[in-house]
Each structure stands twice: as structure tokens, then as C-alpha cells.
Prior knowledge:
Layout: E1 2-6, E2 13-20, E3 23-31, E4 38-40, H1 42-47, E5 59-62, E6 68-80, E7 83-92, E8 100-101, E9 110-115, E10 120-125
Parallel strand pairs: 3-8, 4-7
Antiparallel strand pairs: 1-10, 2-3, 2-6, 5-6, 6-7, 9-10
Amino acid sequence: MVLEFDYIKEEPIIPVVLENGRKRIFIEFFVDSGADMAMIPLSFAKLLGFDKWTYEELETAKGVEGGSIPYFVREVGLVLKEEKFKIKLACSVRDDIPFLLGRKSIFDRFIVCFNEKKKKIIFHSNESD
């Protein structure tokens, strides 16, 4: 299986749907091979029903500029074109972070190719047939 996306606004950004039970939100994620996991800001985590966490659950990611980003992890459904699967989602407790689609849960499922010349991202299934 191959899923192909055109860049949005000249960047490796793709449309994705996140699901938690009956809650569904459409998000344009920046595909980031340098990010460990998918991450969303707190306001969008709340739209998915993730408005409570404990301080014991909080983990910390390092941002590109060296700052710390506290987050908690939840499992959600992710819809990538016609493919639907579960991922671990980092929900930042801040709102000043971008929507990132990182390696965990994505890059083990797909071989991801960035075609800068054609401004496309191609996801090749990494599942054994």
C-alpha cells in the first residue's frame, strides 16, 4: 500500500484525522523525522476529551531551541487517508507548540519518503505481505 500527499504551503504538512471515541478532529500535521512522537497543543487535546492528567504522568521533550515541553501521553485513532490505526499521542500542556507527526507509531508502520523536488510525502507500507 502506498499513501501519497502533496505538501501544503510548500512544507511537509499532511491532513490527518484524530479520533477518541466519538470525538474526531481534523489537523494538518508537520511530518517531522526528527520528532520522537506525534504531538498536539493542549487546546486540541481538550477537544479530544483529554483535559485531565496528573503531574506524575508528565514527561518532558526537548524542543529544537533547547526548551522543555511538558506533555502527557494518550492513545488515539489516527486516520491517514483510508488507513486507520492507533498511535501514542503526546499532548502538550502548552498551546505554543506546532502539530508534529513524529517517528513513533508512524515510521515503524511506513517507510516515509520526502520528495522535495515534487513537494510530496510518500508513505509505503512497511507491513510484511
